[in-house]
């Protein structure tokens, strides 16, 4: 962890910031910016969180001309990721940078770079295709929501069940790296959009899940967590979810 933190600090120090995002009078990024569905010519990624930022105009609505400082600022301000977490995720875009230092959201759909099969909201890549689909499979999200254990919320255990089901049906299992990425995505969403339950685990409302995963839209009334989202917090949630998934795998749920 210290090495990640040091690398993140070095990365942050290398960034220069010129904000072009909707801001409030006190300079904070306005997460209430109007949502607009993407047009056919807008660039989008397999990541609901980044697509959501573009749909609200927090990132450029066309999804193009993105810079690493812009991504870092959006993740830090709109989602309140701490500096280490925001830098870690921002640095993952380095391999997609064009000669002018920018990239577009669709670049992130390059198959098996950071994108992977077994998505909870998108179809797997078709045979022979270089890029994965970025269109939301709304039927898939509806079926995901139906796995809620109480019909009101979606918990770490619910995500574990969903991932157990979708991953056990894969013809080719995810690699260790892909599995690690896939396992951290629901916990990150839970830390950004969810809440803590009495037992310390995390959950989000079904309406929030639908808003973010199905429509790539900030939930009504959303405001960033008052506590910065840290790598440690995401890691703890990931450990709980993976433990539950492993229990399901061991039992051989039918």
Describe this structure in words.
It is built from 9 helices and 3 strands; from the N terminus they run αααααβααββαα. The chain is mainly α. It has a 3-stranded antiparallel sheet with strand order 1-3-2. A hairpin with a 5-residue loop joins β2 and β3. It is globular, with a radius of gyration of 18 Å. It starts with a helix and ends with a helix. About 6% of the residues have low confidence.
Identify the CATH architecture.
Orthogonal Bundle
Which structural class do the helices and strands define?
mainly alpha
Contiguous helical run count: 9
| Distance between the ends | 38 Å
State the major sheet: 3 strands, antiparallel
In round numbers, the mean pLDDT is 91
- CATH class identity: Mainly Alpha
* Radius of gyration, whole Å: 18 Å
- Number of domains as seen in the coordinates: 1
Oligomer: single chain
Anisotropy-based shape: globular
User: Which strand order do you get reading across the main beta sheet?
Assistant: 1-3-2
């Amino acid at each position: 962890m210290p090495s990640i933190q040091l690398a993140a600090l070095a990365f942050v120090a290398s960034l220069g910031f010129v904000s072009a995002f909707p801001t409030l009078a006190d300079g904070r990024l306005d997460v209430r910016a109007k949502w607009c569905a993407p047009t056919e010519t807008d660039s989008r990624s397999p990541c609901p969180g980044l697509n959501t930022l573009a749909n609200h105009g927090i990132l450029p609505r066309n999804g193009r001309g993105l810079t690493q400082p812009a991504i870092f600022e959006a993740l830090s301000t709109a989602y309140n990721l701490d500096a280490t977490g925001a830098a870690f995720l921002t640095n993952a875009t380095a391999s997609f940078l064009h000669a002018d230092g920018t990239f577009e959201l669709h670049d992130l759909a390059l198959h098996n770079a950071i994108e992977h099969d077994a998505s909870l909201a998108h179809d797997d890549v078709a045979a022979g295709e270089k890029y994965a689909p970025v269109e939301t499979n709304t039927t898939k999200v509806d079926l995901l929501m139906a796995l809620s254990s109480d019909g009101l919320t979606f918990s770490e255990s619910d995500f574990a069940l969903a991932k157990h089901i979708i991953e056990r049906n894969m013809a080719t299992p995810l690699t260790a790296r892909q599995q690690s990425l896939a396992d951290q995505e629901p916990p990150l969403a839970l830390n950004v959009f969810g809440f803590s339950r009495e037992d310390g685990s995390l959950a989000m409302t079904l309406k929030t899940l639908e808003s973010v995963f199905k429509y790539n839209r900030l939930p009504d009334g959303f405001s960033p967590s008052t506590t910065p989202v840290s790598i440690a917090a995401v890691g703890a949630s990931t450990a709980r979810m993976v433990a539950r998934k492993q229990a399901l795998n061991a039992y051989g749920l039918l």
